[in-house]
Each structure stands twice: as structure tokens, then as C-alpha cells.
Design goal:
This protein has 196 residues and is of the alpha+beta class. The protein contains 6 helices and 5 strands. A hairpin with a 5-residue loop joins strand 3 and strand 4.
Length: 196
């Protein structure tokens, strides 16, 4: 047998999977997510032929035809309950995020040396390592992520840069965008004098 007699198998092209923009599931699995109503609205507006395939009256009747009336009612009730729970959870997360505060603390090390500690950024989905690297490059100083006395992660920047950090947050620069400026508090901590 020569190599010209054997045909190489044709490579199988990759599958193109279409995902819902609301729940990130494929459209046929949106019903298992917590936001079916919003998924249906999006699918109807964006891809009406897929909506007709999965959620038209005929498609729903063929799916539900095997269920009893009691099971249909229970299914609809459970779906509404799931959606309400997911919306309440999203609202609670948003309220918690808006109630969170970012604290910028200027701490005196020696008579003229200071460090700036920033904590509370993680509530606004800021990557602390990226933010500390950004601040270190911006101010040409050392910056690191450490745990404070309460056990929370904070960014410690060498030098008195508290006002500059506030300006960066207000302008939404780099990884600090998304932090509302009205949730920022600047405090100052002086070193206690040793008792003689």
C-alpha cells in the first residue's frame, strides 16, 4: 500500500456555540438559570428564530404536553420564585457595594516619613495586586498588599500620597475605576509618643 492510496481523514471543524448574553448559558439551557424572563426578552429581540425554536407556543406545548396541570403550575411558581430570589440577591449586593467605604489612611512612621494605607477597595471589585502595582508605578515608590490589624487586605504605599490617591480615584484611573469618590474617607494616624 502506498501513501497515496490512503486518504487522510478530514478534520472536523470546531462547533460554534451560541451563548445567551444574560445568563451566559446556551439558549436551550436558559430555563435552568435564575433569569429566564430577561433571557427570553433578550433572545426575542436579538435572535427571533432561536426564540421561536425554544420558546414559541408550539415548542412550549410540546415540552409541557407531558406534564400535568399541577406540575405546570408548580414549575411556573418555582421559576418565578427563583427569579425573584436572584433579583433580591443582586439588589442586596448592589446596596452592600454602595454602602462600603474606601479608607485612605496617612500613617506617620518617623518625624517626616509617612506611609499611606488604602483598604476597602475589594468591595468594588478592584484587584489589589494590580492596583498596588499601578500606584507603585504612578508614584515611583514601593507599594504592597498586606493584611491590617483587623485581618483585611490593604494596599500600603510608601510616602504621603493620600491626596494623590484620592485624585486618581476621582478620575477613575487604571484599576481604580468603578470606585465612587463619595465613598472615600481620608484619615490621619499619628505615631504615639513613647512615655518616659
Amino acid at each position: 500500500m502506498s501513501s497515496s492510496d490512503q486518504q487522510e481523514p478530514q478534520p472536523i471543524p470546531p462547533l460554534q456555540v451560541f451563548y445567551c448574553q444574560i445568563c451566559t448559558f446556551p439558549p436551550e439551557y436558559c430555563e435552568f438559570g435564575s433569569s429566564l424572563t430577561r433571557c427570553k426578552e433578550w433572545l426575542q429581540g436579538a435572535h427571533s428564530q432561536l426564540f421561536d425554536k425554544y420558546y414559541s407556543d408550539e415548542a412550549l406545548q410540546s415540552k409541557i404536553g407531558t406534564l400535568s396541570l399541577e406540575a405546570q403550575a408548580k414549575l411556573e411558581k418555582d421559576t418565578a420564585k427563583k427569579e425573584a430570589k436572584a433579583e433580591a440577591k443582586a439588589d442586596a449586593a448592589l446596596k452592600k457595594k454602595m454602602a462600603s467605604q474606601v479608607s485612605i489612611k496617612r500613617i506617620e512612621r518617623n518625624k517626616r516619613k509617612h506611609v499611606t494605607a488604602i483598604h476597602g477597595l475589594e468591595a468594588f471589585d478592584v484587584d489589589l495586586k494590580k492596583a498596588s502595582k499601578f500606584l507603585a508605578q504612578k508614584f515611583a515608590t514601593g507599594a504592597s498588599v498586606t493584611k491590617n490589624a483587623q485581618g483585611q487586605d490593604e494596599i500600603v504605599v510608601q510616602g504621603d500620597v493620600s491626596d494623590d490617591v484620592l485624585e486618581l480615584i476621582e478620575s477613575g484611573a487604571g484599576p481604580l475605576k468603578g470606585v465612587p469618590a463619595h465613598n472615600v474617607v481620608i484619615t490621619e494616624e499619628k505615631k504615639k509618643k513613647a512615655q518616659e
